[in-house]
Structure formats: C-alpha cells, structure tokens
Amino acid sequence: MVSEARFLSNTLAFAQRVHAKCGPVSRGWWMFGQSVYLMSAQANEMVLSDRAGRFSAKHGWERVLADLFPRGLMLRDADDHRWHRRLMLPAFRKEALARYLEAMTPRIEAAVAQWGAAGNLKFCPAIKRLTLAIAADVFLGTQLDSEIDRISADFSDLVAASVAIVRIPVLGRTYARGVNARARLAGFIRERVAQRRASQGSDLFTQLCQARDEAGKQYSDEEIVDHLIFIMMAAHDTTTSAITTMVFALARHPEWQDRLRQEAQRVGTALEPGCRNGPTLDDLELMTDTELVFKEALRLYQPLPTIARRALVDVEIHGKRIPAGTPVAVFPIQVHRSPEWWSNPLQFDPERFSADRAEHRRHAFAWSPFGGGAHMCLGLHFAAMQVKAVLLPLLRHWKWSVPAAYVPDYAYAPIAKPRDGLPIRLVRV
Q: What gap in Å lies between CA 93 and CA 103, rounded to an integer?
C-alpha cells in the first residue's frame, strides 16, 4: 500500500523516483494490485500500438473501473471494441463537431463574460462547470441548470471513487458515494432512451440511440447507458484539466499569452456576449500557436498520467520477460519529461512542437497524452476544438495572471488539476 499512497499523492514524483532507481521496467503495487511499471517510449509503443493483440485494455482497467464505468470503450477489446467504436465514430466526425461547436458557443460566451465580471475566481471549478454544462448539452441534450448541477455533483463523486482505496461501499464512504452517483446517472439516462430512439436530434445521446451497423444492429439500452457515462466523464474532466493547465501556463508566461491573443484577434468572428455568429471549425484550425501551447500543456500535465493493460501472452521489453496474465502500467507522465526525447524537458517551451523542431516526432510514442493504437482517444478532436473555442473569447477580451510567487500543488490522479483550484485575476484587454 506504500506504493499506492505515493502514486496517488504525487504521481510524477513517484514515477521519476521509480525510474531513477529501477529503470524502465520494474514491479510494484499499482491501483489495488501487483503490476509491472513500464516507463519508456519503446514500452508505450509496444503496449499502446499492440497490433498483435498481446495486451488487454479490459483486463487492465477492470480492477479500477469495472464497478463505476463498466463496459465503456476502455473496457473492451479486439472485435468487440472495434464494433462499439465504429458505431460511435460518426458522432465525432467533422460534421458532428461543427454542430457541437455551434451549440456550445453561446454557453462559452456567457461563461467568459461572467468570469471577467467577477475579476477574481478559482479557474478550475469554473471551467469544470462550463465543460460539464457543454457536455450535458451537446452529449445528453440537457439544458436545465438544476439537472446540470445534479449531474455535475454525481460525476465528481464518480471520479473521486475511481481512486478510493477502500472499495467496499458499506465501509468506504467515497466509494459508496461513487456507486450511488453512478446508479443515479444510469437511471437518468435509462429512462430517456426510448424517447431518444423515437426522436430526432444532434446530441450524442440521440445519435447513439439511433446508430446502426450495416446489418441493422444497434446498441442495447444498457450499452447506451455505459457509453454515455464514460464519455461524459472523459469529455469534461480531461478537457477541464487541459484548459486549466493552459490558463496557468499562459499566466506564468505572459509573452505567450500576448502571442496567442494576437492570433485570436486575427481569427474568425468577434464573440461579443449574445452574438450568435461564433467561430467555425475552419476558424479554429487557424489557431496554430494555440495548438502548440495545447500540446505543451498536455506534455507537462497530461490529464491521465498512466494507462493500464494486462499481458495476454509472454512478452519481453528492455530485456525483461513479462509473463502472460501480468498487469502492466505505462507511464507517459515520465516519458513526457525524459531528457532522452525532450530538450530542457522541465521548461515550458511550446516551440518544441513546431514544424522546425518537432521534438514529439523523435519517437512516435514519446508524446502520447491520448494513448495510441486501437484505443486512441476517440474524442481528441472534440477536446482540441473545445479548448480553442474557450480560449478564443477569453484571449480576445481578458488578460489574466496569478500571484508572482504562486506555485500550484498538482494532483495528478485520477485527473491532473491544481488542488487549490487555480486562483486567477482577470482584467479587460
């Protein structure tokens, strides 16, 4: 349990200490069981690309997520995973993203105006509220504030329960709250499935209810429940983490904030409060400097610091044999700060992702915040779109800062975020 506590308290320090002492392959206690730690770009490639099907995502994550996020895409393998992912794919294509962008823009405008009027706020809970409201709207088709508040509370309890050490509901209050929250969310979705199957709509919920493969097969009611709960969690929590990190980095590096502001002023249509003419996907594609900062933020503080698998056959990596049946955990959080692949790896330097330098291309899996292979994050383009859509009006209308001596205390697990919520001060440009 010592390794468990150290992993949860500071995942980055834990990974760096283990790698310095034991190298890229070692054994320890990870997420409620014995595991092999793999900390190299080569290991990321072997485990995440996995063209030969030697590792199971389902059996890697089930000891952590099976009770709370059962049968989501992360807990499916091989043909079963491919079928479920393929049926979901149209909901994340460009045409769907354009509809989501149009729907989320008014909420973003209103939220940014509210933040600016407040002047001082804790940014992480504020952006979490916004990303959850967006997810509830474009994924669930829910717009009532009362429902969004209830959904938000349930998702917070659900995510907290995913790393609870005591995992018996009658004994572990954190875990019990998560289990109860999951039951409420499932009930909320389940009672609306029949109506969504018979209706027309552009939200993800309706699309999943009506999706069919070439043979006419569709998701069952329970599969829709499972997928929506998992997608809602992944969509709002990981994007919250990424935007929070970017806002902190831009507060610490005002030269980059000014550079992105100049870019934002050149892109798209002015987003004044109440204006319905928001940015298009083509507008957001022009935000190339913002893309550099996004990638660097994900390098330094990727939302998910480790990725779990279980070996299905005997494998060998770095000269070490891993027997079939062994749980393994790759640690992108350590590889992302390795001097083997990155110049001055602890320094905030978005230019490292520029075409001229392209440090992320020194190895295909030196940078892997979205995973890789068949389980590459399905929502990565949605995440990038939402990040740019939020930053565009924020940069145009506001400057922000943190206190001169401020250093955030980051919690890396289950999702990276500053423990104090990231206090910022905004002033009008």
A: 16
Q: Write out the two tokens for 107.
A: 């909420």
Encode pLDDT of 19-34 as tens digits: 999 999 999 887 667 8
Residues 159 and 233 sit within 8 Å (Cβ to Cβ): yes
- DSSP 8-state symbol, 48: I
Question: Does an H or E element contain 309, and which?
Answer: strand 307-311
Domain 42-309+335-428: homologous superfamily in CATH: Cytochrome P450 (1.10.630.10)
Contacts of 220 (CB under 8 A, 6+ apart): none
How far apart CA 233 and CA 247 sit, in angstroms, is 21
* Measured distance CA(118)–CA(112) in Å, rounded: 10
The string of pLDDT tens digits covering residues 103-137 is: 999 999 999 999 999 999 999 999 999 998 899 88
What is the tens place of the pLDDT at every residue in 402-419?
988 898 998 887 788 999
Residues facing residue 35 across a β-bridge: 28
- Neighbouring C-beta atoms of residue 23, cutoff 10 Å: 13
* pLDDT of 270: 46
Model confidence at 268, pLDDT cuts 50, 70, 90, reads low
Query: How many C-beta atoms surround the C-beta of residue 191 within 10 A?
Result: 9
Per the DSSP assignment, residues forming a β-bridge with 27 are: 36
What does the domain layout of the chain look like in residue ranges?
A: 42-309+335-428
